[in-house]
Amino acid sequence: MIELQNITKYYGKNAAVENISFIFEKGKIYGFLGPNGAGKSTTMNIMTGCLSATNGSVLIDDNEISSKPIKAKRLIGYLPETPPLYPEMTPIEYLNFVAGAKGLTRSERDKEIKYVMESTGIEQMQNRLIGNLSKGYKQRVGIAQALLGRPEYIILDEPTVGLDPNQIIEIRELIQSLKNEHTVILSSHILSEVSNICDELIVISNGKIIASGSMSDLSSKLGSGKKLCVTFKCDDYESVNDMLGILQIKPECSVLYKSDSGCICAEISDAEEQMREELFFIAADKKIPIIEMKMNTPSLEEIFIQLTSGQSQNFEHKENNDDIDLQEGA
Ligand code: ADP
Ligand code: MG
Asked: Does ligand 1 come within 6 angstroms of the Cβ of 42?
């Protein structure tokens, strides 16, 4: 396992990461989720021994990274935010170079390079210049170097950033396939990205872990309350309030507003499932048609906004509403 113990990093007087402690168990895919500037890269650079912490320690299978760096780093494959690629090399030359730097023996090298090229699907590109490869293939070469030597822990900093939707799907599948042999820790500022791939999420904001757990843990912790949204073909607030009163819905639990077509919409928070039927019969009694009724569970975005609310970030919805792109506050 990887254990972060009270990791703090100051840049001058500013804390980029403050008192982060976490245990990564073997065999899972972990997602570090947070807006730009949250401290993801700083934490990953510290975990991999590329940056020293101001305070705290990192244990990789009980090897403290600053006192036993070689043992600790052998257990890690790292793809930093900017992949450490040489554009004038071909993938095969580059992987040979990395294999040498990682201390793989000559007899191991060819077999291992073949294995990582197969795992990342870059065999056909092995003799092209890295500088001429697409961003998706460059990223695969970056992941291939991380896999060389078959380290237990693969740490990937924003592996899908800047890729097109098809490339994102391919890299996502590649990451999922790594799970059989590796523990994977990846970061992202896009919620749907990590919620799709990861077994566990660590939400980080302003240098602190603000929540962690599986996606369903996080939703049940925050968004247990379902919301019942009902549209009545009726423009009289009093009649709608009367119906909600019969169901003993407290005024603070409902929000009423008029839609563009003049119908009254009611949003009832913490609604129970049987309320749908009860409301149907009450409205039928009063001859008020219900033209729409649906039970809403909180979306991933709502959960995320709840988690990070009160902190100075802007939330910028992308065209695809499944994605939320978190930008650093001004
Ligand atoms: P993320 O990867 O989540 O976007 P980073 O770890 O890169 O966040 O950055 C966390 C904070 O630390 C940001 O406020 C960033 O501006 C600051 N920071 C990062 N690197 C440096 C540096 N080398 N010098 C000064 N500040 C830095
Ligand atoms: Mg980063």
From this structure: yes
